[in-house]
Amino acid sequence: MPAITVDDLTVLDRLRSPGLGDQPRPVWQVTTAPQGFEGEGFPVRRAFAGIDLAHLDPFIMMDQMGEVEYAPGEPKGTPWHPHRGFETVTYIIDGVFDHQDSHGGGGTITNGDTQWMTAGSGLLHIEAPPEWLVQQGGLFHGIQLWVNLPRDAKMNNPRYQDLRSGEVALVASADAGSLVRVIAGSVDGHHGPGSTYTPMTLVHATIEPGARLDLPWDVDFNALVYVLNGQGTVGTTQAPIHTGQSAVLGAGDYLTVAASGSQESRSPRLDVIVVGGKPIREPLAWAGPFVMNTKSEVMQAYEDFQRGAFGHIPA
């Protein structure tokens, strides 16, 4: 897995162990992501399908894209499409993706990079593999997370943050059995490079077979764990969890994820995305690529898109 790593976890700073009085977060729900296809036909798992939006707030959805080994000529992306009222966070674990928008923004992300796109007032957007990858094929794997914007930020100007893998904060668990990559927010004083409108934390953790990760977590945030690959347990009650499953956790000071001692050869470790944020607690009106507060705002977004207010597809 080319997402940034280190050979010797003992050289990293360690997360603190839970202290006296620290409360573990209970497991409220475990769900299994349905599989399908997005855009022009790349495979996705809808990570948070079946979870009440009230438990997701401030998040809307998350897709696991791949993991897929493309043959020459097979790599696919999305056609041009609009966005308004939220942010997309695209984290590429394996492979290469090009982004472009109608405001002249975009770029290329690969192996451990993240592109944080604030759609704000609206833009047209396209995501696609580069031409050389289409021609030769290759492995592709990543996630895309949709983060809601509060009412007073929904019509902000669009912007990008290109977060390179080398900027991600790296820290080890107390026993050095887990590598924690902090992409946004902070964990136990270790800060990721992502700047967010909504207070939140995004982590990619790799847990060695038989190891256990006790992850300190902001008490004001909700917490969701999604398994990219591997198998193990979540919570101090050791609820089983495996590839393509999500866990919704309750309140507490820290969360626990443990890797089974035996893993599949294709997935020798347990990899999880952990995400949480401070709930916005505002009305939500969501239709396709528009995430607003009211139905009339969604209808206005459709009208603005149809009259070309989101910009035009570059020549």
UniProtKB/TrEMBL annotation:
Residues 203-311 form the Pirin C-terminal domain. Residues 42-147 form the Pirin N-terminal domain. SUPFAM superfamilies: RmlC-like cupins. Gene3D superfamilies: Jelly Rolls. InterPro entries: Pirin, Pirin_C_dom, Pirin_N_dom, RmlC-like_jellyroll, RmlC_Cupin_sf. Pfam families: Pirin (PF02678), Pirin_C (PF05726). Belongs to the pirin family. This is Pirin family protein. It comes from Nocardioides taihuensis.
